[in-house]
């Protein structure tokens, strides 16, 4: 997935780091404004309140200011900043008794089917394991049914086309609620991958989890959010 | 009832197996044999084509979510800290 626009607009790491080390305030404002929103989202996955997330983000920036002279280009600057953030947020999270046992992956919530088994045919049916009914189409879907070939689909609520518009406030709320319902580890991974646009190897590095565990968490999180959108768009299928 | 046409091969994936492989498929993390079975299934199954497309749409929409911003006082405090140095 493409990185976020604000990230693309930043100067290259070497120029940024040089300017930060020279205490160039404009450079600091650039990264502060570009990365704080994502840092807040990620911090929220670890701590219990928004205020707490804001404090962790501030703490992380202070650590960045303090530590930028020791940055060694072992990762991108942004990944390094998020590593600092995650370490601080984790510590704060355990203080708040919401510790996330990353080392014991996968947890109970990371097992089992991600799609309701009732949507598939059972052993006594003609095609066990296959859809009873196909997932209902969503508005704006590129792979919607050809009306001539299939029975008419029920009318779908007149929701905007995703290609044409920003997300509606209602859809934003749906997505936000779906993310809130996720187990914390899944939420942090999907936030980094799909909201922040990090690549898989970067997320593994930031969270210090294996590529496989990262994928399990991402898969479950995406399937859950897709299911929530299916309830919204397609009546649950 | 929407059974897929022409499903006879022993190693053909069922839809409930396909849906668990979607992320690994999108990440290109499948071994070649499983990748082949996934593609074969996709070629035959309109329901899973749609499921995959909806996963892609989900990812795209998550990427469009606006983020919170740091409150102005916090931002100002950080700028002040940066300005005053270590």
Structure description:
- The complex is a heterodimer of chains A (237) and B (86).
- Chain A contains 9 helices and no strands.
- In chain A, α5 (77-95) crosses α8 and α7 (184-195) packs across α9 (211-234).
- In chain A, 38% of the residues are buried.
- Chain A has 237 residues and is mostly helical.
- The longest helix of chain A is centred in the C-terminal third of the chain and has 24 residues, at 211-234.
- Helices cover 54% and strands 0% of the residues of chain A.
- Chain A is elongated and about 70 Å long.
- With 86 residues, chain B is mainly α.
- Chain B is 64% helix and 0% strand.
- Chain B is built from 4 helices and no strands.
- In chain B, α1 crosses α3 (46-62).
- The radius of gyration of chain B is 23 Å and the shape is elongated.
- Chains A and B meet through α3, α4, α6, α7 and α9 of A and α1, α3 and α4 of B.
Helix/strand structural class of chain B: mainly alpha
* Strand coverage percent of chain A: under 5%
Total beta strands of chain B? 0
- Please tally the helical runs of chain B, counting DSSP H or I stretches of 4 or more residues: 4
**Shape annotation of chain B:** elongated
Backbone structural class of chain A: mainly alpha
The residue ranges of chain A in which pLDDT falls below 50 over 5 or more consecutive positions are 1-7, 143-164
Low-confidence residue ranges of chain B: none
Run of helices and strands of chain A: HHHHHHHHH
Query: What is the strand tally of chain A?
Result: 0
Query: Quick one: biggest sheet of chain B?
Result: none
- Mass-distribution shape of chain A: elongated
Separation of the first and last Cα atoms of chain B: 68 Å
Largest interface: A-B, 68 and 51 residues
Q: Can you write the helix and strand succession of chain B as a string?
A: HHHH
What's the multimeric state?
heterodimer
Q: What does the average pLDDT of chain A come to?
A: 83
Total number of helices of chain A: 9
Q: What percentage of the residues of chain B does DSSP assign to strands (E)?
A: under 5%
Terminus-to-terminus distance of chain A:
26 Å
